[in-house]
Amino acid sequence: MPGLLRGVARTAVVAGTATAVSGRVQRRQAEKYAGRDAQIAHDRQAAYDEQTYDQQAPPPAAPPPAAAPQVDIVSQLKSLAELRDQGILTEDEFTAQKAKILGT
Predict the structure, then answer these.
(1) pTM of the full predicted structure?
(2) Which of 31, 56, 83, 102 has the highest Cβ tally under 10 A?
(3) For residue 1, what is the DSSP state?
């Protein structure tokens, strides 16, 4: 019986040692690869953010200044008045073109 007890005790020691070593190896590998996994996750997120940023619509163009169309209207009316004064346009043609420019 002492031989049987010794064999069981030896098996228990070997199994316990193997479990302890296995757990230690597993923890060390987890610690070793945790940094690598974190770096991979960071790189993937950065690439995703960059891709998302590139796909965003460009900012809307600035609206044109409000004064520019008025100056254009004024210059067109002056040109029409000069044509009327020179006799190239009749009063009716001048009035029609003026209404068209003013949008009335």
Answers:
(1) 0.34
(2) 83
(3) -
